[in-house]
Design goal:
Helices cover about 30% and strands about 15% of the residues. The protein is of the alpha/beta class. Helix 3 crosses helix 4. The longest helix is centred in the N-terminal third of the chain and has 14 residues.
Amino acid sequence: MAWTEALVLHGPGDVQGEPIRHGDEYTGFIVDCYAVDVSARRFYDGAFLSRPKGCDKSGLAARLALFEAFGPCRGSGEFAQGGEVYRDPFGLGFVYEYEPGEPIARHVKVPYVRCMATEEGQTGNVYDSIHFNLTDEDAPLSQALARADDAGRSRILLPGGGEITPSTASSAAKDGGKETFVTYDETHLYVRPELHSMYATVNRNLRKRKKIAETWYLETTTMFGTGEESVAEQTYKVAELIASGKAKRERLLLDHRWGAIDPDELGDELKLRAALTDAYGDALDWNDLDGMVDQAYDPKAKIADTIRYFLNDKFAPQGAWLSEGEIRSAAESGRDRVLVDGDQVALGFDGSRGRAKGKPDATALVGCRLSDATSSRSACGRLTRSRRRGTRGSRH
């Protein structure tokens, strides 16, 4: 935190070149990402940050990538007695005095940081912010490079070895895989097979240097489209499996913030404003609440887009029989209801073909009364959402 706020500037955008100041919310997330056990080793193999549009998710990913490349981002195995001092090795003037009990940090040796992009020929917002911090003459970290031309549009060569590279599906498949940290930005867009393959390939590569470099990845996303089977949706399902005790040896930090509101209540401006305030949290400091309300009430705006992109909540895909809110309402109100003679009921059956490692399956039979959507079910492995807004993940 102290290193980032001292040495990193905001990248391209309205606040380009201004100093970084994290609020309590992102401070807490960063602290969680680097939480360590009694041996000073990191708890987590991956982190999943889900926020609405405009919450500076890409900027945060860029700051962590720079910290991974230039900063003391790993535990040395020792804890401070108090008074020990860290001085950056690049002559940038950053000094930090440790408090008693803090883990004494070390640098990653020959770090390889990969920033994944979705489209060929694009570097992505994360890499653009990194590139700015290493090329702008007023940016402190630009002085850390051995030569000015070490920071290119296709890769950045790090002093002492290592690099920061923007990658796409095709380039990731060709590389040998020496990654120590990876950013996957906007994983709700990772819906094509080649992007799924890229994600799987790079995550496997992270295992190669796991023991010493303590490799990990960060996913940043806005709410996925339900049923699109994006990487974000799959990661969310993994988190639900962890929370329900059905996944073993998964070390995932999930931080999902959203604003809850029934779609039928979007017309109530007070409730909409409260939900947007919940969804944006600290990010409301630099977002226009009035503008978001106006956007929601634009006659051309889709309810699904408002709930997904601005409230960061699930919404049933177009053509679905019931919305997410209707399903939750029926589940909560239908516990004490019973079927009577004459009720019309529809039955749905989903069978399973077995269970494979990493791909659990389940068999379910669901009955739903047509008049009010009250349902009953007999299922193996039914899942529920695992996080609520304003909270952070925990180790599993």
